[in-house]
Amino acid sequence: MPATVIVGAQWGDEGKGKIVDLLAQHSDLVCRYQGGPNAGHTIVVGDETYKIRQIPSGVVTGKTCIIGAGCVIDPTVFLAEVDELEARGFPTAGRVHVSGNAHVIMPWHVAIDQASERRLGKLQIGTTRRGIGPAYADKALRIGIRVQDLLDPKILRQKIEVALIEKNLWLEKVYGEPPLELGEVAGRLEEHAQRIRPYVSDTSLLVDQALRAGQSVLLEGGQGTLLDLDHGTYPFVTSSSTIAANAAAGVGMGPNKIDRVMGVAKAYVTRVGEGPFPSEIEGPDQERMREFGHEYGTVTGRNRRCGWLDLVALRYAVRVNGIDRLALTKLDVLSHFAEIPVCTRYRLPDGMETEDFPAHQSDFHAARPVYETLPGWEEPLDACVTVEDLPDEARRYVEFVERELEVEVTLIGTGADRDSVLAPYGLTALTGAA
Ligand code: GDP
Ligand code: IMO
Ligand code: MG
What we know:
Elements lengths: L2 E6 L7 H9 L4 E4 L8 E5 L2 E5 L11 E4 L4 E2 L1 H13 L8 E4 L3 E2 L2 H14 L11 H10 L11 H22 L7 H15 L3 E2 L1 H10 L4 E4 L24 H7 L6 E9 L2 E3 L12 H10 L11 E3 L3 H11 L3 E5 L9 E9 L5 E2 L6 H6 L1 E8 L16 H14 L3 E5 L7 E2 L5 H4 L3
Parallel strand pairs: 1-10, 1-11, 2-5, 2-10, 5-7, 6-8, 7-9, 11-14, 14-18
Antiparallel strand pairs: 3-4, 12-13, 15-16, 15-17, 18-19
Helix pairs in contact: 3-4, 3-5, 5-6
The chain binds guanosine-5'-diphosphate (GDP), 6-O-phosphoryl inosine monophosphate and magnesium ion (MG).
The site of guanosine-5'-diphosphate (GDP) has 23 residues, from helix 1 and strand 3.
């Protein structure tokens, strides 16, 4: 019963979509366990590029895909994605399943997310403004609307009516925004509900049946470890638990069914939005890294902030997720640098140096990176088919990461395309597929 979690080990956009797409070819079921359309995953197959936001990345390989109870779903985004996939030849009926317990991102969540960020001004979190935080907040307050509520038009209208009384007060009086109109909101959602109905399933049961049948299940995380609500760089985080342990809770299966945790990390680091970022590059290399790595948000198009690989933060991600294998993506982007600094320790305000991620936010905010500089290889990696083909310096870079983290690097990304990857231990061994 092999279940494998694929978790972002940095601040998101590590290339999880590509890794999930790759491993999905050797799996049967791919599940998202948290998050919503704040995620944007890019998958490149030959001349085709797929940008996926709500549906698991396994959809491109035609695998059964599950949006678990721990997710939030924006019906408009979901249906637009369904339409796009269908138009490009990927059937979704009977293949994509949405948990009835997942929460719906309503128009007021999006409006409040946007208004709240605007009002915070300089203090903003830099959210994706897709209503993620307000939707999870209502879930915790027990006033959310769930996917299963879409199945009963009478209950749905009633819930929207009750919610709008309070949400419109909030929008008008707190944020000075125009109110939402009941007829319009309910009408649009009722239309969406008709189309979403066939996708609603008992997803926990589906996962259990797959595991009992000995099928291979991938659990795909959105965002990344440092954006985790409890263990990330709060308050500059997302509003869900992104870490591997939540994969079981988010799809509704026992944690003892998970037997592998693969972390995905770039060979450097990026971050979108506000918040501390010790290894952020100062000077022109920041812009060079952004250009070479095409570091612009999949969903928002925003510039991603770029930094050198931060092993303190990555060591922390290994710890809080139980990462036992690592996919190191975008090694090819480092081909452009003659020397490559790697942050191995932080210097704290009291002058002490640490390899461990600071437990207190003030220490983290003030932490200065201590770098070891490794030689670059300054040649493209396009022609590399096996790890042995890598230039010596590139291989040493990977070995350095393995040594520092005490975790094996089992996949190495050498380009955006599905095939641009080195797998020293093969692919099937990574998912436990027969
Ligand atoms: P995700 O959110 O973790 O799925 O990552 P995104 O898809 O948002 O961002 C990762 C970007 O890097 C995408 O544009 C990918 O196509 C691209 N990518 C993934 N792996 C590699 C790699 O090994 N090399 C290069 N050059 N690009 C990669
Ligand atoms: P994927 O799955 C990178 C960041 C936002 C912001 C913070 C909160 O593609 O890796 P939210 O809208 O979630 O309330 O925003 O989290 N963020 C991401 N950064 N990749 C993502 O997803 C992200 N999803 C949210 O930029 O700083
Ligand atoms: Mg992304």
